[in-house]
Amino acid sequence: GETITNWSLSGKRASSVIVHLRSFGFAPGRLRAVGYADTRPIIDPHGKAGKDLINARARNRRVSLLIR
To answer: Could you tell me which of 58, 64, 27 has the C-alpha nearest to residue 43?
Structure first.
């Protein structure tokens, strides 16, 4: 089976947004999916436990859009 990593989850999250935007008619050449996995956290999860860790992970699961 497929190994699930932060990289695969991040890439799938970004790709799903691309698919959604394409459904609204955005030109494919204007869209790019980039996954950063755990390399750019908003909240550093290291040293956290319990609810603090759950909240940090949830906050770090995101997709950012750059519109030009």
So the answer is: 58
